[in-house]
């Protein structure tokens, strides 16, 4: 009887302590791990959130860049951190594609991290040089089918969402395209504008100004919905390939096992920040799509992306050289 009473007292104490711990969070600085170099898109996301999140939480928020392995090195630190919400990380779409490309993952992208919030999705654009004799996606497909050996298509790097979109489009359209990966969007756009490569898959922020200036022609966007700031460009799905939906995306995760109340607080503050005038301006300028707000929705999305991109990698035999 005494043992039962002691157990019940201990259980009640633990239940009371959990809310108190969550209520006292945060009590020290928070790290945002970014797996890419300063100045890049993922780094920008971390720094856009840094100061507003610090103000909202009343604690310093420090961005720490730890580059390498398509962001995996930084996210490994998040996965192995103490599950208390003091280490969070910016992840991008490579988080979901890496399991299909890496023979040995240092962590499980679903089980070892806890989804916090989606920052946004950025649609990709299939674009061509003006010299390419194709005004529409169907005309480009016809051109590709009439080109022995196939046409080259550029992306900002192997294994990125751009690469997966190109390979899925190639397979669904039954055309031959030869992947030409670049080391970043800058060199890729230079060669597309210069005509060294006829076609490419690029993120909206990278290609939009060139399209508006008439230096490139946009044929279709890869997302399920049209890009908000390129609304006249049809989707691939609208152009004869129902269900086609690939975007570059950015989100925040923390360590698996972090208390739900802490994740809910982080989710709430990030969604509030994303609704601020400054962030709305950034969203509009970059054609960012925000179509989910809860941590559960983002977690379900990550799981679905791992499955979808894994299948594309297997079907198209996508490998990192």
CATH superfamily annotation of the largest domain: Bordetella uptake gene, domain 1
Number of domains: 2
Sequence stretches where pLDDT stays below 50 over 5 or more residues:
1-20
The CATH class of the largest domain turns out to be Alpha Beta
Distance between the termini: 66 Å
Account of the protein in words:
This protein has two domains: 29-121 and 248-316, Bordetella uptake gene, domain 1 (D-Maltodextrin-Binding Protein, domain 2); 123-230, Periplasmic binding protein-like II (D-Maltodextrin-Binding Protein, domain 2, 3-Layer(aba) Sandwich). Helix content is 45%, strand content 19%. Helix 4 (94-101) runs parallel beside helix 11 (295-316). With 321 residues, it is of the alpha/beta class. The longest helix has 23 residues, at 2-24. The chain has helices spanning 2-24, 41-57, 72-80, 94-101, 137-145, 161-173, 185-194, 204-212, 260-274, 277-286, 295-316; strands at residues 30-34, 61-65, 87-92, 113-128, 151-155, 177-181, 199-203, 217-221, 247-255.
